[in-house]
Amino acid sequence: MRCLLASFIAFATACSTEHVQQSHEPPIQNLAVTRKLNRTTMTETITASTPGGIVTASARLRRYHPHEETQTPRHWIGFGEISPDLVLADLSLVVAGKPVSIPRSCYADFGEFGFSGASLDLASDGEQVILHYSGGDGAASYYADFVVRDARLEEIRIHTLGPLPDKRVGRITMVRSVPPQ
After folding, report:
1. pTM of this prediction?
2. CA angle at 112 for the pair 60 and 28, rounded to the nearest 5°
3. Which residues share a beta bridge with 160?
4. Per-residue DSSP letters for 67-124?
5. What pLDDT, in 10s, does the model give residues 94-142?
6. Helix (H) / strand (E) containing 47
7. Chain-centre distance for alpha carbon 32
């Protein structure tokens, strides 16, 4: 019986490894960050060390005043048509001394309930850096991944709750195009 079991395990192992494709891409790993919050200016700044150099990211919120807005979004990420209390005013990223251009249009519709900090994180696989921004709260929560390679913003993935094709509510991922730089 032991021989039969050992033969089966050897056969199953051999069969399963024949058809498995192994990825040679390095895994994306969260980076250990140093976090600074300035509650007066509603600014969060994080810094991390990577093999390619120091990465620094900063997000500043401001109060939303609809009468002061020149181009008010009709739909706020995580809020729908409800106006948020705060909006993401500035988002900056510097990778190994090189500023990464993140156009305001990429995050102009990101709203917030309040300033709590801990909305930024960084991850990397050695070739790309991902700035992770999380916002909203509860059912209105969302997060966005700003994917950067060679100090250039390549893609933005926004994850939020919304209606699925089968009419349930679930997590939806939208890929936002990056304006030409």
Report:
1. 0.76
2. 70
3. 142, 172
4. GG-SS--SSBBTTBTSPPSEEEEEEEEEETTEEEP--GGGTTTBEES---S--EEEEE
5. 999 999 999 998 998 888 877 776 689 999 988 899 999 998 877 778 8
6. strand 43-50
7. 16
